[in-house]
């Protein structure tokens, strides 16, 4: 019988084997790698890694543990990575057993799209454990481009306005990776300016630290690309792409609101598609999420429409699962979080002055 081990640290050769498994499996997840966790060390209280045997061969992943006055709870973000989906139940039995002993509840968002195996897991989990779903933004969907098509056919499938914008950008803009940390900080300046324009909170110090760590890790371990968009020797935007299993993911981007008439993002995404097309083992370009709950009062609605110019193929992931070991603590936390989210939503919509038009 397969038995998971749980550890707060992964060291030496263990770390190499662990990362090889979670990154290279067909439904691998960069979000479960030690590289990714180290970038985000300040966003959780502690971490607990798990894998089977001395060398991961069946399953691996990491609990991100959060502690606050109301509860101690954990989440597995786009994990666990399971080599054979038919063993999901076996893996989950051990994860839930560990979670019940250490947390008030556990949140799991699987890294693979909906399949017969994930549907079977849901049905068994509902009967076997105290588990629920929330039909809200926590449920993941995304837009994808099939990289088995030729680059020429992929480009032809784009919306007419997007194709024109890419051609215009190729005449006016320069796309390249950062040469130094000063250029990364130039991107951060644009990123924060964009967030301020949209009425979103900003933290300059944390922003610089985060993107500096991200650029360093992506470069050192070849886990993606960090592109900057230049116009007349000025950094006016940039896009970040991640390698994750058989996917190449559009992770984050920024466009300077002072240059909103220039098609900053179009060219960078097209470059990401071309890069992904050349990578062995990568068959999907993932546009980094598609929120089916967004309406015209939400900024995300306009981001959805922009992404639809590249593809309209939606891929749905299993609903986010909440395994509840202390119902009272869970309900108190959920109500406090909902109140905070309502206030933030009102604040953002009040602050927004401009929305970039969809071409």
Feature tags:
single chain, about 350 residues, alpha+beta, 8-stranded mixed β-sheet, 7-stranded mixed β-sheet, 11 helices, globular, disordered C terminus
Can you tell me about this structure?
Helices cover 42% and strands 23% of the residues. It has 359 residues and is α+β, with helices and mostly antiparallel strands. The strands form 2 sheets. Strands 1, 2, 3, 4, 5, 6, 7 and 15 form an 8-stranded mixed beta sheet that branches. It has a 7-stranded mixed beta sheet with strand order 9-10-11-12-13-8-14, sandwiched between helices.
Blueprint (SSEs and pairs):
Layout: E1 4-7, H1 12-24, H2 34-39, E2 46-52, E3 59-67, E4 72-77, E5 81-82, H3 88-102, E6 105-109, H4 116-128, E7 131-133, E8 141-146, H5 151-156, H6 160-172, E9 174-176, H7 181-197, H8 204-221, E10 224-231, E11 234-244, E12 247-255, H9 264-277, E13 284-286, H10 299-308, E14 314-316, E15 321-324, H11 327-351
Parallel strand pairs: 4-6, 12-13
Antiparallel strand pairs: 1-2, 2-3, 3-4, 3-5, 6-15, 7-15, 8-13, 8-14, 9-10, 10-11, 11-12
Helix pairs in contact: 6-9, 7-8
């Amino acid at each position: 019988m397969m038995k998971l081990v749980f550890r707060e640290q992964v060291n030496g050769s263990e770390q190499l084997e662990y990362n090889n498994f979670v990154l290279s499996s067909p439904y691998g997840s960069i979000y479960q790698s030690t590289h990714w966790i180290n970038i985000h060390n300040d966003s959780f209280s502690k971490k607990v890694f798990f894998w089977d045997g001395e060398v991961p061969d069946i399953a691996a992943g990491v609990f991100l543990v959060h502690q606050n006055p109301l509860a101690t709870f954990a989440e597995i973000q786009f994990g666990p990575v399971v080599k054979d989906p038919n063993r999901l139940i076996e893996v989950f039995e051990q994860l839930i057993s560990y979670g019940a002993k250490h947390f008030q509840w556990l949140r799991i968002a699987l890294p693979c799209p909906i399949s017969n195996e994930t549907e079977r897991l849901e049905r068994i989990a509902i009967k076997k454990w105290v588990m629920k779903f929330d039909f809200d933004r926590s449920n993941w969907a995304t837009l994808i481009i099939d990289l088995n098509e030729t680059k020429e056919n992929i480009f032809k499938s784009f919306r007419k306005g997007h194709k024109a914008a890419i051609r215009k950008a190729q005449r006016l803009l320069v796309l390249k990776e950062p040469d130094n940390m000063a250029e990364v900080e130039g991107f951060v300046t644009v990123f924060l300016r964009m967030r301020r324009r949209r009425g979103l909170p900003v933290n300059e110090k944390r922003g610089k630290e985060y993107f500096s760590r991200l650029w360093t890790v992506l470069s050192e371990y070849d886990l993606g690309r960090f592109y900057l968009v230049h116009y007349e020797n000025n950094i006016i935007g940039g896009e970040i792409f991640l390698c994750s299993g058989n996917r190449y993911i559009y992770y984050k981007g920024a466009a300077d609101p002072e240059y909103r008439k220039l098609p900053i993002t179009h060219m960078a995404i097209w470059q990401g598609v071309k890069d992904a097309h050349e990578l062995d083992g990568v068959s999907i370009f993932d546009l980094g999420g598609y929120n089916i709950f967004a309406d015209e009062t939400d900024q995300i609605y306009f981001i959805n429409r922009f992404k639809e110019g590249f593809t309209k193929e939606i891929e749905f992931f299993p609903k986010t699962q909440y395994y509840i070991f202390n119902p009272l603590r869970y309900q108190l936390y959920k109500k406090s979080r909902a109140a905070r989210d309502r206030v933030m939503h009102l604040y953002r919509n009040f602050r927004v002055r401009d929305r970039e038009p969809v071409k």
